[in-house]
Amino acid sequence: MSKSFDVVVIGAGPGGYIAAIRAAQLGFNVACVDAWKNDKGGPAPGGTCTNVGCIPSKALLQSSEHYEHALHHFGDHGITVGDVKMDVAKMVGRKANVVKQNNDGILYLFKKNKVSFFHGLASFTKAVDGGYELAVAGDKPETLTARQVIIATGSNARALPGTPFDEEKVLSNDGALRIGAVPARLGVIGSGVIGLEMGSVWRRLGAEVTVLEAMPTFLGAADEAVAKEALKCFQKQGLKFEFGVKVGEIQTAGEGVSIAYTNAKGEAQTLAVDKLIISIGRTANTNGLNAEAVGLKLDERGAIVVDDECRTNLPGVWAVGDVVRGPMLAHKAEEEGVAVAERIAGQHGHVDFALVPWVIYTSPEIAWVGRTEQQLKADGVAYKAGQFPFLANGRARALGDTTGFVKFLADAKTDEILGVHIVGPFASELIAEACVAMAFKASAEDIARICHAHPSLSESTKEAALAVDKRTLNF
Q1: SS3 assignment, position 121
Q2: Which CATH number does the domain 3-157+283-353 belong to among 3.90.180.10, 3.40.50.150, 3.50.50.60, 3.40.50.10490?
Q3: Is 132 helix (H, G, I), strand (E, B) or coil?
Q4: Burial class (CB in 10 A: 0-12, 13-18, 19+), 82
Q5: In what residue span(s) does the Pyridine nucleotide-disulphide oxidoreductase dimerisation domain sit (predicted)?
């Protein structure tokens, strides 16, 4: 017998579970369906982000950073340690526990907000009067009907043609998070977020890491000054990079992996590694959705086609997050999920894509919001720039991490902040002030005039704003 709901959300990743909770808050009878399983076969809501993405990668980054500090930096603080060792199994076990805590937290939130949760793979079966029928395939098959459907099925790692992931030698983000021992040699194809973060983890633990990147430059989406500073830091740490490469045949015979490639000079090269992480982007996940059963429109990349408000071509069917256009970021998915739930309720949900922050959780951290200097130049926008180094910040000195800087870009005439770019300690936290300021159309002068706590890293934000008018006080 079919179970009826006002709203059914397919997928319990950041976009899906947040959409379900917000819809329930707005008074709808809501169900959320998700197929992720934990090691025991039980439900593991949270999607890629919680299970094999944002959350576990940060757990490993934190553990590996502690290890590196113990090896190389505790002595600066007067702390003497003995024989420092890393128990990889315990580190990975802690990561798994952090993931489980987040899984359980989402299940608790569903219960708290009276969201009905179904564990299984949801697919469309047909359109019915006033809505849609969905089948849930799992240990307990169900049939659901919904007046409104929100699709939040996320994305999958993109494989290289002819080189499928085996998650033993050739790894996606999933396999990269489950490496059981430190590889002597680790190869990474792609110098994006996943490649840099996972490369950093295993480099800290002793792996020799080589990153192969097809693009001729590093972090082309970031501000050039930030990318240049970050690359210098990563190379100093021991990460090896080759840009402008063309990857050829990848062989997995024997104990390791052999990657044939052509370098930027056109010379044939071979890289031999024990493990290979491929991080060349992600593809929208519509697997098993049975979109054709109801005529749901997909684009040439397999993503669900939506308008500016996340409406699909079908009445009452919406889609959010990685499965639609726009940046594949968890926080973008969350904002879209909230906005769609509010639109269903007749409200005016809003997402400003120009104010979605980007963060890379390496050391140094990298974060930015708004336009880069190269984008402003290309668009012919007259601007002023201000920059302040963490080297001149008292809190950064006390932390022992003075790498990087904060950079402000402001309109030359109005002084409105057009972009803020940070490379350095806790950039992921500092960028929030810039997002708030830009949402309220603040000027660089506004930030420069606001009192910031001393000593704090946030003073570097104030000083960079002052630098727009060439009046820094501490540099």
Answers
A1: strand
A2: 3.50.50.60
A3: strand
A4: exposed
A5: 356-465
Would 3-157+283-353 and 170-280 be classified into the same CATH topology? yes
DSSP H or E run through 422: strand 417-424
Burial class (CB in 10 A: 0-12, 13-18, 19+), 294: buried
Summarize pLDDT for 102-158 with one digit per residue, the tens: 999 999 999 999 999 999 999 999 999 999 999 999 999 999 999 999 999 999 999
* Buried-state track 312-350, b at ≥16 Cβ within 10 A, e below 16: bebebbbbbbbbbbbebbbbbbbbbbbbbbbbbeeeebe
Q: Where are the domains of the chain?
A: 3-157+283-353, 170-280, 364-468
**Catalytic-labelled residue, pool 72, 73, 350, 454:** 454
Is 364-468 in CATH node 3.30.390.30? yes
Task: Specify the pTM.
Answer: 0.96
**Amino acid in the structure at residue 9:** V
Paired tokens of 469: 């008018």
**DSSP E strand boundaries for 170-274:** 170-171, 185-189, 208-213, 240-243, 246-251, 257-262, 268-273
Q: Which helix (H) or strand (E) holds 407?
A: strand 405-411
> Hey, CA dihedral for 153, 159, 162, 163, is it positive or negative?
negative
- 69 classed as catalytic: no
| Residue 338 tokens, joined | 């909230």
Per residue in 248-297, pLDDT (tens digit) is 999 998 889 999 999 999 999 999 999 999 999 999 999 999 999 999 99
* C-beta of residue 310 within 8 angstroms of C-beta of residue 336: yes
Q: What pLDDT digit, counting tens, does each position of 334-371 carry?
A: 999 999 999 999 999 999 999 999 999 999 999 999 99
User: Distance between CA 56 and CA 198 in Å, rounded?
Assistant: 11
Mean of the pLDDT values across residues 301-313? 97
Q: In the CATH scheme, what architecture does the domain 170-280 have? A: 3-Layer(bba) Sandwich (3.50)
Q: List CB contacts of 161: < 8 A, sequence separation 6 or more.
A: none
Q: Which ranges constitute the DSSP H helices of 345-385?
A: 373-378
Q: Do 1 and 138 contact (CB within 8 A), yes or no?
A: no
Give how far the C-alpha of residue 301 lies from the chain's centroid of Cα atoms, to the nearest Å: 20
